Amino acid sequence: MNLPLGIKPLDITSFTNAHGNFTQALKPGASFDLTVSDPGFERQYPSFKDKYNQTTENFQWLIQHAIDNNLRLRPMGSGWSLSKVAVCPDGIVNTKKLRLKASLGSSQLSEEYLNSGDPFNLLFAQCGNSMISINELLEQERNPPKSLRASGGSNGQTIVGALSTNTHGAAFKFGSLSEFVLGMHIVTGPDRHVWIERASRPVTSAKFQEWIKAEVILDDDIFNSALISFGSFGFIHSVLIEVEPKFLLEQQLTQIAYDGNLEKAITDYDFSGLAHVLNYPLAVANEKLYHFELAINPHNFEKNNPDKGVYFRVMYKEPYREDYERIEPQTQGYTYGDDVLGLIQKVLDQVEVLPGNMLDGLVIPNAVNTLFNLAYNRPEKAIGTVGETFRNTIFRGKLYSGAFAFDRKDMPKVIDIVLGNNRNIPFAGVMAMRFVKGNKATLGFTRFENSCVLEMDGVDAKVNYNFSEKLVDVLEAHNISYTVHWGKNNNVLNKERVRRIYGDAVDKWLGHRNQLLSASAQAVFNNEFLEQCGLDQPGKILLT
Amino acid sequence: MNSIRNASLVLTLLVMLSGCMTMKVVANYDTDNIVPSEKTRVIYLWGILQPNDIPAGCESKSICMVQVKTNIGYIMVSAITVGIVVPQKVVWDCCPSQVDEEHLD
Ligand SMILES: Cc1cc2nc3c(=O)[nH]c(=O)nc-3n(C[C@H](O)[C@H](O)[C@H](O)COP(=O)(O)OP(=O)(O)OC[C@H]3O[C@@H](n4cnc5c(N)ncnc54)[C@H](O)[C@@H]3O)c2cc1C
């Protein structure tokens, strides 16, 4: 096969995701690498714009190739998703070598943006730039230095891979990563590519739009649908993101009782009852608080008991300064091996099939208590930039990780339900609540204005899948609104549930997809996950 | 009594099912690949016969992460042959190429 410069065959016949939850068989010869740094490509396309525009053509070539050969393709970021959102049974496109990035001068920007925003606070980045490399660029190379405005707990994702599934941290006043996106360049078909911005916040100028050669769409609704579209709206070639002057995050980790005071913080962000715990006087703390998270070991938890309480983890946002002690990665000593969780999984799966299944109740709490102590063996205080704070993950190897979002007001009820569930089916892992400001993305899972994401991380064993199935049943029986993370273990999602959760937003999203992609292009980007969620059918185009 | 029985059951299962032993050397957690490269090679006669160098095949010509893996099977082969046959598995991730930020005006 004669491939255009910049496209290389990716010789794989299967793909296993970062946490080893699944292996997807792939068609031989159907996967590709895209690159801008191959020496031949660089010689042929020496300038930024040449490289960039040729890559757009390469994306289009791939879509045409897939249509001609009746193949499905999925763009992949770092392959970190625990659900099968980034794979299909035919081919994968590795985007991680697409790392062009640029700052934009004022001629590239709209009057409206120049009147209200700072051009130095923008970064135009190709999809394959990793969160790690973006942090390095912004914090260490940019002058003046900058910071990402939000991050997930770890930073191995690509920028587009991360935002496509609504990746979030616990920026309860800012929101998830999707909040810093101002523009997207999406290759939607063999002869179509679009640059999308919000009509309510136009950013780029005609000059920018000319060189990128895309059809321009200024529309809030379409933007909101494409923003969290998990590889279904075509190849997102690049994004324009808004950053801010470099800042520091001062971490505080304290074990406290789960009591009425904490509940007020959970349901209203009223930290007054926790004033004695905070690092600053209440008014100052309220101003500085940026990150709010609670970790719970469900096997060692009791309300109003500080010894069996929660880990209260907050971060205060501080202006950047040079004189602070850097967080050093741990290089001495031992951590549990990559296979430990996998081994426990095998044990638990064996235990599951034993008659009576008495052992779960014995094995799980002990194993979790040990791992919890290892995983939460963190300093009580630390200070660092976004890039220094959110690094590689604390859990290693084979892992189950599920996340449900709720309205923060429902959390006391949800906690009771979760603990009740845990008494029947012990969850082999730990839980965290991360508070995130909601977003307006059509299928954003942090859609509650004040979202609280309940995360459940543990062993990739059947018992944990059973736990989440049962949990959803009980939540539905209690009529509690919830959503499910698109990129984490979300086996509970099906067509009916997606409809029930998102209602008419599903039609909006499908309609916008249909508006941007021809039927044959939609078929290329369909996968089993979309079928499972009932998101693979062409929707009715809604005129806006 | 019960807890001893349970613990020994868990221990037996762990040993029966034990997996890979891994050591990682990391220069940077970033990579440009979605599937790491890996090769298993055998060293013979206490190192007298060594496999040729393995080309990394990285576009950036640099490696960001290397893992050396072994398992019970490899250890047993090495032990039974008293080091005459030592299989080793190496897994590596390529660094991304350096692409500097440009300015568009
Ligand atoms: C160790 C670990 C820690 C995590 N921590 C968090 C966390 O703190 N918070 C959180 O919310 N989630 C977290 N997650 C989940 C993770 O952030 C998401 O699954 C994220 O989407 C993965 O990013 P990725 O780059 O690996 O993308 P992938 O998993 O490869 O892909 C994700 C989606 O993006 C699409 N995509 C990728 N590139 C493109 C492109 N160029 N164009 C169009 N679509 C594209 C894919 O098709 C897929 O649908 C974590 C996962 C792991 C493994």
Characterize this entry briefly.
Chain A is built from 18 helices and 22 strands. Chain A is of the alpha+beta class. In chain A, β2 and β3 form a beta hairpin.
Total helical segments of chain A: 18
Mean pLDDT of chain B: 85
Task: Describe the sheet with the most strands of chain B.
Answer: 4 strands, antiparallel
Which segments of chain A are poorly predicted (pLDDT under 50) over 5 or more consecutive residues? Answer: none
Describe this structure in words.
The complex is a heterodimer of chains A (544) and B (105). Chain A has 544 residues and is α+β, with helices and mostly antiparallel strands. In chain A, 33% of the residues lie in helices and 23% in strands. Chain A has an eight-stranded antiparallel beta sheet. A six-stranded mixed beta sheet of chain A has the order 7-8-13-10-11-12. In chain A, helix 7 packs across helix 16 and helix 13 crosses helix 14. Chain A is globular and about 65 Å long. Chain B is of the alpha+beta class and 105 residues long. The model of chain B has no long low-confidence stretch (mean pLDDT 85). Chains A and B meet through strand 6, strand 7, helix 4 and helix 10 of A and helix 1 and strand 5 of B. Strand 7 of chain A pairs parallel with strand 5 of chain B, so a sheet runs across the interface. Bound molecules: flavin-adenine dinucleotide. The site of flavin-adenine dinucleotide (FAD) has 34 residues of chain A, from strand 5, helix 5 and strand 13.
Features:
heterodimer, A: 544 residues, alpha+beta, eight-stranded antiparallel beta sheet, six-stranded mixed beta sheet, 18 helices, globular, B: 105 residues, four-stranded antiparallel beta sheet, 2 helices, binds flavin-adenine dinucleotide
Spell out the blueprint of helices and strands.
The complex is a heterodimer of chains A (544) and B (105).
Chain A (H helix, E strand, L loop, with lengths): L6 E3 L4 E3 L6 E3 L6 E4 L3 H6 L3 H21 L4 E4 L14 E7 L3 E4 L6 H6 L5 E5 L4 H11 L4 E2 L11 H6 L16 E9 L2 E6 L8 H7 L2 E4 L1 H8 L7 E8 L1 E2 L1 E10 L3 H9 L13 H7 E8 L13 E10 L20 H14 L6 H16 L5 E4 L1 H4 L10 E8 L3 H14 L4 E9 L12 E9 L3 H16 L5 E2 L10 H8 L2 H12 L2 H7 L2 H6 L11
Parallel strand pairs in A: 4-6, 5-6, 11-12
Antiparallel strand pairs in A: 1-4, 2-3, 7-8, 8-13, 9-14, 10-11, 10-13, 15-17, 15-18, 16-17, 16-20, 19-21, 19-22, 20-21
Helix pairs in contact in A: 7-16, 10-11, 13-14
Chain B lengths: L1 H15 L4 E6 L10 E8 L18 E8 L1 H9 L4 E10 L7 E3 L1
Antiparallel strand pairs in B: 1-3, 2-4, 3-4
The structure holds flavin-adenine dinucleotide (FAD).
Flavin-adenine dinucleotide binds next to strand 5, helix 5 and strand 13 of chain A.
